[in-house]
Prior knowledge:
This protein is mostly helical. It has helices at 5-18, 29-60, 63-68, 70-90, 93-116, 122-147, 150-182, 186-212, 237-243, 245-282, 290-315, 317-324, 326-329, 332-346, 350-374, 381-412, 418-465.
Amino acid sequence: MEPNPRLTVPSGIMNKFLRAFADVRPGESRNALLLALNIFLILTAYYVLKPVREALILNQGSAELKSYLSAGQVVLLAFLIPLYARLVARVSRRHLVNIVTAIFALCLLIFYVLGRLGTRLDIPFFLWIGIFNMMIVAQFWGFANDIYSKDEGERLFPIVGFGASVGAVFGSRLAARLIAPFGIYELMLLGCVLLVLQAVITNLVDRNVAEKRQPAIKNPPEADPAPGKSPSPGHNSFKLVLSKPYLLSMGLMILLLNWVNSMGEYILGNAIRGAAQAAVVAGNAGGLSVEQLIGQVYAQYFSLTNVCGLLLQLFIVSRLVKYLGVPVCVAILPCISLVSYNVLAFFPVIRIMVAAKVAENSTDYSLNNTVKNMLFLPCSREEKYSAKQVIDSFLVRVGDVLTAVLVFFGTTYLKLSARGFAIINVILVLGWLVLAIRVGRSYRALTSTQDQQLPAQADAKTAGAH
């Protein structure tokens, strides 16, 4: 069937437009933009819900409780990830996304009803959102890795990541506007709607990929197996990570990354909570409660961070990946964090805390997030879904637990100040940097091996044909 000219012309125009930001080739813009829209909706939902989490946990609980609850998230993930791996082994990726999304959306409806009934939600909602934002985002990037080859992913992930950056900015600003007039519980309903919409987009992309693969193409990405025909059904996700040096190094790197980041969030959260309480006591809160004031401050902080991340994603990320390569780019964030916490150790004031966290998080949400997901491109399907959940969910939360342990001993026995915690972060960043260099070298070796195998496979097929 001949292509409809009315559809191909806009596609060509879109390709030309997107080439200003990334290396997009003919026929690639549609799915790349749909994936960008998909992660836009996910991140919008998360950043609409994130100030709700902060408002509930810091007002009904404390900054210390926020750190301690990470242990509960690790326990829940240790139970949920094996169940997720079984689901991966039994259903197609489309059904996987639909089932997991439906469960999370239903949870939001339940939280809304309970909140309106006056039930205390600080602990259960904090536990839930810590699992939600890890698993749903990891699942999305597993899906993106599954439909793209290594070459396509390195070229197109910056565009997909742009959708994440825009969603984070839009979600945080939307939350800042809606918290005061509507309240925090209504944002849960909005998050539920956004989750349903992103699942619809995922189904559309999966159908597009299936239609594209009907004609024979050279070197397609690994096909999505039929339900019950996973390459290794029932494989233990944790053993999979432990058995592969590349995955283990990546997991330890992500663990340290989140350990450092969570420590920084504790330092900042404690300072914001104290400032909000002082403002209410002094009558300088503009009539807002401590809960609302904390929510607004965090919404503004997230907005600033995400605007910076958006600009980095739009103009810098694809160029850094193209000219420096993934192995170098994966080490950029630890270098920034090393500088940030060294500065914070000598100038522990709230404005510098905010500036340091904005620099760290904006780079994390843009460059590092894009490159981190590229690291799974040379992996198998099982590694892209099941092992990725261990690395991007479980080990991230283990980093939170380690933060909680440090916070407990640091505040209870060592009486550490913000400067003391910053010095500890400097030490952790050094280990993170070493692992990032190692992971980058392993990625280069894996992709070089695959690139060498492809021409050999093509020659063998040609010889067989003759």
